[in-house]
Design goal:
CATH superfamily of the largest domain: Type I PLP-dependent aspartate aminotransferase-like (Major domain)
Number of strands: 15
Mean pLDDT: 95
Distance between the termini: 21 Å
Strand order of the largest sheet: 4-11-10-9-8-5-7-6
Bound molecules: pyridoxal-5'-phosphate
Shape: globular
Radius of gyration: 21 Å
Structural class: alpha/beta
Largest sheet: 8 strands, mixed
Helix content: 25-40%
Length: about 425
């Protein structure tokens, strides 16, 4: 596959941006080689600058559940842009988007719009601390909540330990109040509350993990999260930036029947434009400025373009839900991938919730970060390039979830499975 234009553009990009990118996952560090530069997306497909077509399973890392350049979304954005892109003042579109969110997500009574998932989690953490008057936050190793200083820690011990920052520039002070636990570890959670219960402002968790690859929560873990936070007066924050409107219209909380206190949203909620949101119980949300004292603001928050894309996306998901079709397509892909890996003799385990899934190169089920870390990332990298060279654009790290969109067809899925079969044969024989 010729990618000479991609190479040229990326060579220039490296002189302009750190690593040639505006977000690190795009640089392909986890799979080696150079990123593919894209020119266009339509439905389930992307075209690179050399004219190669790919079936896309990244979907901009989640937002494009309806496919790229979905006509109703494009039209809504075009229409809104003609009336001005931002006023820094209230608009009716904000009501419409917030109403869609409140109606969709069971635990959300009041909501605040922001510009990214990171902003949503950062603000939710601040609110949990402001509301409880406590400092400590519990997070789980391998869960990602955006690049918030206090959450950029992932020490790998199963006991509750004080976090060590994993990025230069994050001060020890910023992370000293972050307790790191292992995902799906009920005993660890109980121990942390027994030892630090009075200090814990909140627990932030991906209710289905996407950011160490797809990891499915146990029912016991989710209910322990709810019971222990409630008993100790801590705020339970579901980070549904990825799972919201993805695993179900009402997110993971509607799928598993757990009501968190606060929920963070992003990705799909903006229909491909920069939108995040955090919301929850009115009793907590009323502490946000100007109703309360917890500061949070944004010049472009709730701007008409972002709202238009979000409204067009959510209203279609509500009125013509694609979730059953997504389930069928995703099951077809999962079954095909497992069969292909089996035939190729590759150690594998597949995790899936609805239209997010990961084929792990490990024979052992992945329940948390230590089991995720056992995957053969070299074999994954060969698999990734095997797929790319056959016109399938897969998440460029073993530790990222893939997404199926409503624009994918059964023919796309079958083409992907054939490509995966060949790529897996190549991945294992080296
Ligand atoms: C993507 C993601 C974020 C960060 O969102 P950005 O819009 O990239 O800042 C936070 N939490 C989860 C679970 C995510 O998947």
């Amino acid at each position: 596959m010729n990618r000479s234009r991609s190479r040229e553009i990326f060579a220039r990009a490296k002189q302009l941006m750190p690593g040639g990118v505006n977000s690190p996952a795009r640089a392909f560090a986890a799979v080696g080689g150079e990123p593919i530069v894209f020119a266009r997306g339509q439905g389930a497909y992307l075209w690179d600058v050399d004219g190669n077509r790919y079936i896309d399973y990244i979907c901009s890392w989640g937002p494009h559940i309806l496919g790229h350049a979905h006509p109703p979304v494009v039209e809504a954005v075009e229409r809104a842009s003609r009336n001005g892109t931002s006023f820094g003042a209230p608009t009716e579109a904000e009501n419409t988007l917030c109403e869609l969110i409140v109606d969709a997500v069971p635990s959300v009574e009041r909501v605040r719009l922001v510009n990214s998932g990171t902003e949503a989690t950062m603000s939710a953490i601040r609110l949990a601390r402001g509301y409880t008057g406590r400092d400590a936050i519990v997070k789980f190793a391998g869960n990602y909540h955006g690049h918030v200083d206090s959450l950029l820690v992932a020490a790998g011990s199963s006991a509750a330990t004080l976090g060590v920052p994993n990025s230069p520039g994050v001060t020890a002070g910023a992370s000293q109040d972050t307790l790191i636990l292992q995902y799906n570890d009920v005993a660890g959670l109980e121990a942390a509350f027994a030892a630090h219960g009075e200090r814990i402002a909140g627990v932030i968790v991906e209710p289905v993990v996407g950011n160490m690859g797809t990891v499915v929560p146990t029912r016991e873990f989710l209910s322990a999260l709810r019971t222990l936070t409630e008993r100790n007066g801590a705020v339970l924050i579901f980070d549904e930036v990825m799972t919201g409107f993805r695993v179900a219209y009402g997110g993971a909380q509607s799928l598993f029947g757990i009501r968190p206190d606060l929920t963070t949203l992003g990705k799909i909620v903006g229909g491909g434009l920069p939108v995040g949101a955090y919301g929850g119980r009115a009793e907590i949300m009323k502490h946000v400025l100007p109703e309360g004292k917890v500061f949070q603001a944004g010049t472009l928050s709730g701007n008409p373009l972002a709202c238009a894309a979000g409204i067009a996306t959510l209203s279609e998901l509500r009125d013509d839900p694609p979730y059953e079709r997504l389930e069928q397509l995703s099951r077809r892909l999962a079954v095909g991938l497992v069969a292909a890996a089996g035939r190729a003799g590759v150690e594998h385990t597949l995790a899936r919730v609805g239209s997010m899934m990961t084929l792990f190169f490990s024979g052992e089920p992945v329940r948390n970060w230590p089991t995720a870390a056992k995957c053969d990332t070299q074999a994954f990298a060969r698999f990734f390039w095997g797929l790319a060279n056959r016109g399938v654009y897969w998440p460029c790290s073993q530790f990222e979830a893939l997404f199926v969109s409503a624009a994918h067809t059964e023919a796309d899925i079958d083409e992907t499975i054939s490509a995966a079969q060949e790529a897996l044969a190549g991945a294992s024989h080296r």
